Amino acid sequence: MPVEKERKVLLGGAAVVAAGAVVLTAALWPDGDSGSLGQAPSDGKSGASRSSSPSPTRSYPLSSPPRTIPAVRDFTPARGPGWKPDGGKVVVRDETLAEEGRLVADELGLTYEGESGDAGPGDVELALGGARGSGPESYRMTVRDGLVRIVGPSDTGVFYGTRTLKQEVHGGATAPEGVVDDEPAKPQRGFNLDIARKHFTAGWIKDRIREIGDLKFNQIGLHFSDDQAFRIASDSHPEIVSADHLTKAQVREILSLAAERHITVVPEIDSPGHLGAVIKAHPDLQLRDAGGVPARGAVDISEPAAARIVDDLLKEYAQLFKGAYWHLGADEYRALMKTNPEASYPQLAAAARQKYGANARVQDLAEGWLNDRARTMAPYDRKLKAWNDGFFTGGVVEADKDIEVAYWTGKEIGAREPVSYLSAGRRLTNYNDEYLYYVLGQPNTFVYPTGQRIYESWTPLVVRGTTPVPAKYDDQILGGTFAVWCDLAQSQTQAQVAQGIRMPLRATVQKLWDPEKPELSWPQFVDLAAKLSG
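The line above is the sequence of Glycoside hydrolase family 20 protein; the predicted structure tokens follow.
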């Protein structure tokens, strides 16, 4: 999808084009089809629509575009009273939309009618069908003659339409008469949470799921194993679990709420580094250098026992987390942060040669570890991610082509530019630590990211530092993720974290949903966020 596109808003009988030209068109309201209110045939231009039918009335001023976060992509205004929730009902035209219907009915004080009955003035109707685009997350919302109709090709698209409606009428406001055509620019819009270094309660996590669901995020990552702690109960290895942790019952509640809000939970058991909590219970797995000095958080990948325990955990939690994605970690393996890994860790060098041939090095053993973990996950049919510093070039082993690159930093030894991965055909998700990393305590030159900086200067093409990659790679960049890391866990309370990430989350999703430069200034965007949450 191009970064810039022509946007149109139909104004009665004229479409105003962003460049300033005026193109005459027919009047606004279509006859629709199959009984759908306001289901306008497309003119093929940026989601605008036209018809020979007249506007319903000239007694109302032309409606203004809705103000939501993220902003809707296209809006066709009309003359009419708009819509407010006032004791009406929610009707669904497909039983698969029952959950979305009940949720929005409860939120807006309406009666859930289900599939029975007709929708009329004061009501909301949800249906499956064509929308702005062919993507499953697209939707069309029509407000006409006192009725709201939301239609999308999937329940996810319809859900996003209800999020738009909820924001439009927040605080007693009116949903404007007209047609919203909307869909995201990027298929992955994530929030990543480090629950290993800092224990976040199940209630706090569920509050964040509700928040990001209303903002149309569709992923939440849970990094629940690290050097400091292992935070989810385990049946296969209970000895590694920390005192403060989530029970599996609590995780199931989190998963249920996430599914209701169309959010995929992406679990991460980081390996072969960041396994200090596992090593604490199994010190024999600790990686040590030639002088016997332990490598913090790293298991010795020349030892089969290290692979067995990680695979035990992967298989166990694959039964709990059944979403489409899984994060394998693979970052900051201490052996590969040395200038000469083969000299520092001769046992790894020997194991690499034995397994992959005389020319193999430690990086090949680590790449083989990543591929082996991918094979462990193969029966569970997950889309796999790994951090960018877990991918290497110039060796005899190459990471599986289907593993997504989660690009977070260029600060590591020998770090490769994003184009190095993209030019090789790899797909990438953007975790740029320059903009999208909220690191508690601000260690190692990190500073708390500001929503303004993200809003004004970051785009999904800005993968590393502040320089964008060429636009020709846009389709390979699948989205982005805002991440909270708890390096100095006591630096902030849960409440402070929630407040600190509030505007960065909103700025991030705006830039992932719409590739155009935002129409609102940053102060206007802040004011809108306050209005929508007040």
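Note on the example: The CA atoms of residues 57 and 359 lie 78 Å apart. DSSP finds 14 helices and 21 strands in the chain.
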